[in-house]
Here is the input.
Amino acid sequence: MKNLKKVLAMVLAFACTFTMFAGAKVFEDVPAGSDYSEAITMLSDLGIIQGKDDGKYHPEDTITRAEACALIARMMTGDPNVSQYVGAQNFSDVVSGSWKDSAIGYCYINNIVIGVGNNKFEPDRAITDAEFITMVVRAMGYETPDMAQGYPYTYMSNAQAIGLMDGVDMVANTDALRGEDAQVIYNALFADYARGAKLVNTTHGTSVEQYPTLAESVWGLERAAVGVWQKDDRDDATMELTTCKAHTWVITGKSIEVGNVDMFEAYPIEDDETKLYAHGKKSDNEPYYFTYNGDMANIADLKGYQVELWGMGAHDEPELETVTDENGNSTKAYVYSSEWDINAIKTVKGQSEYDYNASMADSKSDNGTIELDDVSLDLESVADNAANITNDATYSDLTTYLSKDEYNGVKTTSDKKVEEALNVRDGAQYKLMDWDSDGDVDWVVVDEANYYKVESVNSKRLTLSAMKAGEDEEKSTKSETITWKLDDLNDENDYKIKVEGADDLEEGDIIQVSKSDVVGKKKIASTWTIEVVEAETKELTKVDTKKGAYFDDELIHDAEYYNDVRYYFEENDPKIDGLDVYDELNEDSEDSWDLYRDANGFIIDMAPSDEAWAGYIYVTG
Here is the structure.
């Protein structure tokens, strides 16, 4: 009967979980990407945490001893009410039959709390970091008899060792805060529970060898994985995952709509390796797509990281499908079971990331390495990964990672070619991801910048002509004219553009555009935000027909140009209407020039000050 009760408890926990994952709760005061946002959003979905009466979470508020008990009781049982523990405690200052009664009761009978003496608990007193951490360590089964002698530091040291304090900065005697404690509970869900569960001989009705975390044993979550699928001899048997080969993923930042459901794109990473996983089929390097029950805005913040995808679903073999949207655009992708939902995305420990752009290029920019101030980074792993994937099916033609497709006119399939592509002198920003911190970059996140000249503008419409960098006239992208609506979303083939910050534009302005694809439930949009960048006025001090021109003794050479900029560094070039450019660059003229730079400091355009355009705009997504 005892075992039957355990099984029934697990069934109830699973039932609660399916109900509580119905929709993501995003608190107004916990925006995506803010401190603890991932933890707070997921725990709210699970029913472990709740907002306050005003609908906000208030992550900087303190937490009471009773509230701490409620968090831990819900985490350990999978039950948001733990009502079966009403009356399990008899502290004189805890109202019988209240939520405090059941929450404190659970913690009391499981030796997680003992009270403050004189048969009192002080349920409404703010709990300290040390007290909260001690409770979680006890709940997880990690307390040993000798730890009490070194309280509280033995408990906090233990918590640090098992990852409970990752992402928080807690001090023993300070009051615990709601945001920090949510992060600790989130960490506990994914920490090694098997060892602790064995110490206290409690498995919640399941084998701790089979379910080594609370996320699995109590909440019924699993890590999405790929590997070898097989089926037995039964006629009705389905393919089952028998050997897992990849338990972690890299999120690309792309998304697609499949059957009116927005899904995010990811590639599997081979276990104990930093290469993308493939199990031998011809099309194994196609992307995988998942639904996500959390805040889709968080997906953009996780681009390029090695992550674990936790959720619910059957490990059926995903089908390679040709997915076609309503406008006839199609791509091949593995749809990882329409019944599979991702509820939590957890970054893997031990990763390193480095910011980079072409202005940081070292003098040896063709040896396949990136030299930064304190580290030398190889590019072999990212080249290998790029050689096996494509970068298609992007809603707004937004390049977010390197692939076997050309980037900046270069096929990035070798370490030297990757370096060449990254060092094209433009406004793009890169995040170099080293998943195992071994000095070999495994993935590159691309944040592109594009430039346009304002041809005309009014309150409702903005017409632009494109300006792009190129190595020479033959490779330069030809201008194209586009028009955006400013008073509504712009409908493209399969996404929408939202333009922000376009006030006070004038004809002749130049804008730098960083596109950002954002996926919401049933809606995909690319947000383009505009910010004015002022020109630098400099004196022309020297002209060198071989190197370029010096403005206030700064060399602006012929490798720095966008469309018209190159005009000033071409002498009698027939491709530019036969104009003698250096006639205008006269170092004896005492003319002032306006120079306009991109985000990396390269020249976008230049003109004599008395002929300068009205202003330039910098756009971030």
Observations:
- The two ends are 59 Å apart (CA to CA).
- The chain is about 20% helix and 30% strand.
- The first helix runs from residue 2 to 20.
